[in-house]
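Q: My labmate handed me this sequence with no annotations at all. I'd like to see what the chain might look like in three dimensions before we decide whether it's worth expressing. Could you predict it?
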Amino acid sequence: MEVFETKKEAIDIKLTLQPGATAAEIKMQPGSTLIAEGGSMIAMSSNIQLKTTTHTKKSGGIIRGLKRMIAGENFFLNHYSTTNEVGTVWLGATHAGDMLVHTLHGDSLIIQGGSFVASETNIEIDLTWQGFKNLISKESLFWIKAKGHGKLIINSFGAIYPIQIDGEHIVDTGHIVAFEESLNFTLTKAGKSWLSSVLGGEGLVCKFKGKGTVWVQSHNASSFGTSLGSKLKPRK
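A: Here is what I predict for the chain of 236 residues:
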């Protein structure tokens, strides 16, 4: 009987301790490379080679690093590589929360600043402009755009879960983690009137149109910061 051996993926990602304190255990086959946000490493096996650069490309690295900083990411990226042995890297989230592994097949994913964790080398990470509508909503003007082929890891503040959209759907601006580029969005009021939207504490929300997926987080970092800040004692 002929036996066929299943080809192992270059990078295998396993998420643990979901959703409150998620960590990613990444097993890397010989000759593979993982690109990760600076400061996200928890641990790695001794055979992993680490190189820190501004980008994977030979040119334009400084500009791309500055773009990432504008979007809320780090200037430097860490490149984890293996040679002739299987290696393991453990990565952690920026906030106390969840992680998501998403595979791109030549398409694009728009990610909020600060939520990119890691990706395979065939994925291009760049800045994307979301317009002045984000300024009005008190969110970042710039987001991260991931495009290419392979796996990427993003994190959230609290649990992360998908919302499938086919038509229209409203999402609070502070709860958006990522969305497919096939979707368009506009800002609108949460309630029937501006007064009810303001009094209800929601204000402006995003109305997505089209067909695709939005990933949302259970906690709002801005609301949490405002709530926590009022309880902190001022410095003397």
